[in-house]
Amino acid sequence: MKRSRKVKILATLGPASSDEEIIVRLHEAGADAFRINMSHTDHPTMRELVARIRSVETQVSRPIGILADLQGPKLRVGTFADKSATLSIGQEFTLDDNPAPGDATRVHLPHPEILQAVQPGHRLLIDDGRLQLAALKTDGRSIVARVIAGNKISDRKGVSLPDTELPLGALTEKDRRDLDAVLQTGVDWIALSFIQRPQDLAEVRKIARGRAALMAKIEKPQAVKRLPEIIELSDGLMVARGDLGVEMPLEAVPGIQKQITRACRRAGKPVVVATQMLESMITAPVPTRAEVSDVATAVFEGADAVMLSAESAAGQYPVEAVAMMNAIAIQVERDPVFNDVINAQRTEPEATGADAISLASREIAETLKLAAIITYTASGTTGLRAARERPKVPIIALSPVVETTRRLSLVWGTHCVVSEDATDLDDMVDRACRIAYEEQFAKPGDRVIITAGVPLRTPGVTNMLRIAYIGSDGLSGL
Description:
alpha/beta
């Protein structure tokens, strides 16, 4: 299925979209990849969803990516004798290691790591920031804090710590079980929640052993501060604006989104913009104008993908939400200023043969008005470097490795095709031309540009560039 846009759409599956028929409709409406949220999905359901997506993939003859989103550490307060308590701004309130039910003066905090890590002056945000506390004194077993905003607290509400780096890894015991399960099913991407430091990625990479690409979700101030290191150790990033907007000032989130998007593009790694993009479509058939503008901003920034969460997982209009996001993206990319904005963010290539070839292929394709850039890529690296250039013409990524094409389904501008490996240089050119013709990116008389590594089947080597004509039979002409 040929898309009319370059940005990709990642749709979350859930109660409203778990049937195979709905997954087909979501894909037809514009979803390029699907997210399975392990916070709300047990292992049997996850396996069934993966099987249904693979069935749809076979039906539509297109590679479809699957992202499994691990829950990460969930920090919550204990319970109250009366289920909740009403507090007053300015009063002192204690969080401690006493498991007894709480009241208006104290509550159990069943996380000794928090009790030991929080220092005077650190903020504690309860219930997505609806209640805000500032630590006054700590002794390793309790935190005495002052209420600075909000007045209600109830059972099991979440705790966020924007000023505190916790001695916690990114993987909980639940995450370890979930990670083992999703890797067995062959998902393409693993999203890691609440990353604080680069080391959080190392443990997961050791377990994954290359079986899935790793996407770091940026939702904590500690991760923003160490962004370059996290980008270097990850395969992609997600701007998780929900929790990021809790732990950081809301007015800072748009700037951080731009910072992350541009940093990922410089590094040649995909970035997904997520959370509340079309939130009102959970219950309404049309979005607000502000939501349309929000999606458009992410597309103008050159994000690789935009994501739907509850809109497609639990909303009343999942297919309509995907179709709306698709329509917004198409319109933005047709806007006369779109290419100017994208080009203004372009950075200098790295001093490598692959980057030089990718830069040259974009400039040649745009100067000669070629029909497409065709890349042969076994590992996906060549496709990533081609996408980094954000060319005006389509990128056709050919790979004999189906897992590579699935991972590239989240990468900007790439139309992925599973193709048998070429036998020699002439076969490579003929195969590229025929696929460009069959996939309706080029017609007889058009020209395309082909990049690859020679000798063939040598991973990580992009050193060849060739211009070819599409002949009357779809093969290369003179």
